[in-house]
Specification:
Blueprint (H helix, E strand, L loop, with lengths): L3 H16 L3 E3 L4 E4 L2 E4 L4 E12 L9 E12 L2 H16 L1 E2 L2 E2 L8 E11 L5 E2 L6 E13 L1
Parallel strand pairs: 1-4
Antiparallel strand pairs: 2-3, 4-5, 5-10, 6-7, 8-10, 9-10
Helix pairs in contact: 1-2
Length: about 150
């Protein structure tokens, strides 16, 4: 079975490349500044791991396929900002051009056999109680098999 961490890191890199904005893994992304690391300014994304599914041989057999699920939350200050970012995330992860993925998802020692958008907030972003932060949730499943 393919380890999850390389898939997570590859997906975070893909999201950053596709959106041009920082992506944190399980937390607010940080960016390098002149005086060290600081919290990224909005808009940005946060990638969280969700429960996974397994198919094929028993898990002790390293030839089993794994369907790793993730939630990507686009965070911004306005609804139009997070919808723009969510559109870029969607195209980056599951978008296709001429029958091929619009962005490569390269994972060491694994082959991506499917990418699926399983949930999209569909234009209903959540707004914090203070009204200063807006988020848009999307969930994806990345299915991999050992290379």
């Amino acid at each position: 079975m393919t380890a999850r961490l390389p898939v997570t890191r590859a997906l975070a890199d893909l999201v950053e490349h596709a959106t041009g904005r920082p992506c944190g893994i399980g937390e607010l992304p940080r960016v390098q500044g002149r005086s060290g690391w600081r919290a990224a300014s909005t808009p940005y994304t946060v990638l969280d791991s969700l429960p996974a599914e397994f198919t094929g041989p028993p898990l002790w057999d390293w030839h089993a396929d794994a369907a790793w699920s993730y939630q990507i939350t686009s965070v911004g200050e306005r609804v139009d900002q997070v919808e723009w970012l969510a559109d870029r995330v969607r195209v980056g992860v599951v978008g296709r051009i001429d029958g091929r993925w619009s962005h490569d998802l390269r994972i060491p020692e694994a082959l991506v056999i499917d990418r699926e958008l399983t949930y999209d907030a569909g234009g209903e972003p959540s707004v914090s109680a203070a009204g200063a932060i807006v988020s848009y949730v999307q969930r994806f499943t990345i299915t991999v098999t050992p290379a």
